[in-house]
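Student: I would love a firmer grasp of how sequence relates to backbone shape in proteins. Thank you; the sequence and its tokens follow:
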Amino acid sequence: MHGSSMSGWLLMALSAATGAYCLLRMRSTSQQARTAAGGEAVMGFGMAAMALPAAMGTLPGWGWTVLAAVFAAGGLRALWQLRSSAHHLHHLVGSLAMVYMALTMTAGMASGGAHGGAMDGGAMDGGAMSGGSMEHASHSAGGIPLLTGALLAYYAVYVLRTGATLVPAVSVATGGGGPAGAIGWGARPELALACRLAMGMAMFAMLLTI
């Protein structure tokens, strides 16, 4: 993804930490909770991998293709699991958003490479051709504005809705009714909501960079 090195490291750390916590949530006794946590763990680690280029430089073109394939498979899995829970609709949207971002970066790199060759050849003929090619390459990785805007709107609403749900969940968790350790911290509902909120904000930030 495009962006500063610092923002890339922060996004990568946030996504990786969220994915690691979701792995801990997979110890739940509920099959549905384990399935949801597994999907969120894959999403968290995938987002960390996608944020890595902004922190360290570039990702090979085949790397973006691999990410797109992994999340396409995740999207098919979420589509199949919609039979049992509507929560998987969010996993489906997230997987499709990741595929979209990975394909956008793949297309941008391919177009940038092609126009890079055109710039080298056109530099002998004049600066106008070089400048035009550079401008086209800079816009080639911008994705589809309408689709990007729709995904940004979805995640903005999701973050606000999850944040509003998190406040009463935290109040219930800290308001009494037993010792704080009665529920394992890996299974606390407010932490699961915080995990989803963090991933929603990270996804929103990543969509802003394409």
